[in-house]
Amino acid sequence: MTEVDQIPDVEQEVVVEEDETPADLNAALQQVLKRARAHKGLTRGLRETVKALDKRVAHLCVLAEDCNEGGYTALIEALCTEHGIDLIKVPEKKKLGEWVGLVKYDEADNIKKVIGTSSVAVTDYGEKSKALDMILEHFNKN
Fold it and tell me: Mind listing the pLDDT tens digit for each residue in 39-59?
């Protein structure tokens, strides 16, 4: 019975950690992407992202600054501007790929390989959180 008593405590701690106010915009974005992935509200990669932006089902778009194709960034930026979709830029596509779950793990749960992605669109935020409020507030100020 002691094992059963310990399991809910661990789950409660995880919920509390995710509900804390993030330190900066990147930490908030990471939490929002994690929740959106859990609710199947992410499109990853250029093709899926462009489809979501064109259909106007995306609420938020994330673009990697180190994308080496200028046409990709121009297309994503133009679609976001045309349809009034919020756009956030992150420095590295490998980091963005890690945040949206494009990673392979070894047996010890260490990251073995990260697949980078240049663009991600959020179609469903999932649950409301302080991180989501922080991102929405960022766009209301700008």
Answer: 999 999 899 999 999 999 999
Question: pLDDT tens digit string along 4-41?
Answer: 444 443 333 333 345 677 788 888 899 999 999 999 99
Q: pTM for the full model?
A: 0.76
Token digits of residue 49 = 């992202």
Closest CA to 101 of 58, 142, 27, 44: 44
Q: CA-to-CA distance for 65 and 47, rounded, in angstroms? A: 18
Q: Cα dist. 86→20, 29, 47 in Å?
A: 24, 13, 18
